[in-house]
Amino acid sequence: MDDSVAELARLAETAGVTVVDTLTQAIGQPNPATYIGSGKLEELVMRVREQGIQIVIFDDELSPRQQREIEKAIKDDDIKVLDRTALILDIFAQHAHTSEGALQVELAQYEYRLPRLTRAWTHLARQAGGRAGGATGGVGVRGPGETQLEIDRREIGRRIVFLHRQLEEVHTHREQYRSRRRLAPVPLIALVGYTNSGKSTLINTLTHADVLTADQLFATLDPTTRKLALPSGREAMITDTVGFIQKLPTQLVAAFRATLEEILDADLLLHVVDASHPNVVEQAVAVKEVLAELGAADIPVVTALNKMDLLPDGQLDPEVESDLPDGIPISALTQQGLDSLLERIEIQLTEVMLPIEVLVPYDSGEVVDLFHRHGLVTRQAHLPEGTLMSGRVPRALIGRLQPYSTTKKKLT
Predict the structure, then answer these.
(1) Total structural domains within the chain
(2) Any domain includes 172
(3) Are residues 134 and 211 in the same domain?
(4) Each residue's pLDDT tens digit, 158-216
(5) What letter would DSSP give residue 31?
(6) Do 20 and 84 have their domain in common?
(7) Which of 132, 274, 327, 412 is the most exposed place for a label (fewest CB within 10 A)?
(8) How far is the C-alpha of 364 from the C-alpha of 182, rounded, in Å?
(9) Model confidence over 296-312: pLDDT tens digits?
(10) Which residue range is the domain that position 238 belongs to?
(11) pLDDT (tens digit per residue) in 219-262
């Protein structure tokens, strides 16, 4: 709980909120009406009033009812009651710079807010001069609020439909782009990792790009794809993805579907872990759980234990070494271990290549060149009929080389 609350404080700071106090409660089951117990709620209200607190943030997703009851207990419309989901959505709204990112965040926000419009209705009913929802309220009290609420719901419903259509178009364009890219013989690596693990710094260092980096959560939302030179001289494409986090809101996973599908198309996942974080193992597990939810659990993974320069004496904790035995210690900032990382990436990419033997006529020299540039040649001989080559090639090249295959069985 302490770790999760500390992370919530970092999220709040990222959103521009100054944390002045923390309140926790050990409880078996959240109260269905108010999330926390009645005594703890009284303590919360007292602290809010004594300290002039403007925002109360819960480290979980509140139901619309819970949010409404907590707001009712605080009795001040100027004090915001937020949950972890609303806070993350706010951060995403700040950091979405492309039109696609803005659409995704707006959709997630509306889908989150739609069932939480009750407070707007009670506010309007109070302005009308009566008790909200009372059986004896009458049309003069209840009507305007209900009418406005229905208008709000209809408008938001229309906007959600519109955003879904817009994102479907984005999805279609992305799918066309990915289909073309699948035909290219260049493997794709997707960077994944907990938010603020150093993915953007690593892609900058490896590709000499200029992706935004900042020491805050969710600094980068919009995917960036760059060329990566491998030790053998071959090329790969490497794409950054949105950082993961514990309790990642389901609305965001759904809204960022088009972006996250980049992960499913990858030949290899590069999992960047912040080795200096006290909860490094828990964060790595959280990332694996999200990847499993996305259906990416079977894609090969290379783990980079980043930020080694921040560790005392540059040494990993023995428990971390034990839990992440295949991790490669690196520092994206100082470039420590990057040669070893690139070598491991190339080995893994070679393992996912497919074996093939081809006999290429001498008038098709471009095919031989293609095999050399993007594949791994293990044997080559010059025969009267043409160049005999065997080795391994990316899956995307199989279709191009199939007509020259020496085996009758079609490779897929």
Answers:
(1) 4
(2) yes
(3) no
(4) 999 999 899 888 878 777 776 666 566 688 899 999 988 888 889 989 988 665 555 55
(5) B
(6) yes
(7) 412
(8) 23
(9) 888 999 999 999 999 98
(10) 186-350
(11) 555 567 888 999 988 888 898 877 787 777 766 776 666 667 77
Tokens of 117: 């419009």
Neighbouring CB atoms inside 10 A of 397's CB total 23
Verify that 247 and 278 share a domain, yes or no. yes
* CA distance linking residue 19 with residue 266, whole number of Å: 39
Torsion over CA of 329, 332, 333 and 338, rounded to 10 degrees?
Answer: 70
Residue 9 burial class via C-beta count within 10 angstroms: exposed 0-12, middle 13-18, buried 19 and up: middle
Q: Does the pTM exceed 0.85?
A: no
Task: Indicate the helix (H) or strand (E) that contains 124.
Answer: helix 118-127
Give the residue among 106, 100, 99, 142 at the shortest CA–CA distance from 122: 142
Strand 225-229: give its sheet, edge to edge: 225-229, 235-239, 188-193, 268-274, 301-306, 328-329
Structure tokens at 297: 């659990």
Q: 278: Cβ–Cβ under 8 A, 6 or more apart, which residues?
A: 3
Q: Which of 350, 367, 393 is the last residue of a domain?
A: 350
Helix 99-113 and helix 257-264, axial crossing angle in degrees, nearest 10: 120
